[in-house]
Design goal:
Blueprint lengths: L2 H22 L5 E5 L3 E8 L11 H20 L6 H24 L2 E6 L8 H27 L1
Antiparallel strand pairs: 1-2, 2-3
Length: 150
């Protein structure tokens, strides 16, 4: 899957999941799927992870725009054979756009994935974390490949 397709699928899945949560749940409602382990909990988060910097919407919009521009710049410099790097950047892009759409529409982010031992989050957050992990893995593999050739 290419960079743009990954970003668009990630954005669509994120926005669809948030739309369904808002359609079928009340804010603050929790639905245990695995009691005491995993719940769907509808939360409107005006901050970042752990609610830090609450109501700093302009700041988060600026950061998201910088991330999007940086990812576009990086993706244009990649060759087609760098699948894992392109995939990871697509995930980060889709996640950043998903939360950016929320902040532009509502001034906050819709969260709903609740593992009870961690703050509630969403698919965009998941894509950003997984994409960042894959990017670090790709960079590590690339560096290991270069070290092996020396």
């Amino acid at each position: 899957m290419g960079f743009w397709l990954t970003a668009l699928v990630t954005l669509a899945a994120d926005q669809l999941s948030k739309w369904l949560v808002q359609l079928y749940m009340q804010e603050g409602q929790t639905i245990p799927l695995l009691p005491r382990v995993f719940h769907l909990t509808y939360v409107r988060n005006p901050g970042a992870a752990f609610g830090i910097l609450a109501y700093q919407t302009g700041f988060f919009i600026g950061v998201a725009l910088l991330v999007v521009l940086g990812v576009i710049w990086a993706s244009r410099r990649l060759t087609e054979d760098r699948f894992l790097t392109r995939l990871s950047l697509g995930l980060v892009m889709g996640g950043a756009l998903g939360n950016l759409v929320d902040r532009l529409r509502y001034g906050l982010v819709v969260d709903f994935l609740d593992f009870r031992i961690w703050p509630v989050f969403n698919l965009a957050d998941t894509a950003i974390v997984v994409g960042t992990f894959f990017l670090l893995l790709a960079l590590w593999r690339e560096e290991a490949g270069r070290s092996g050739k020396d």
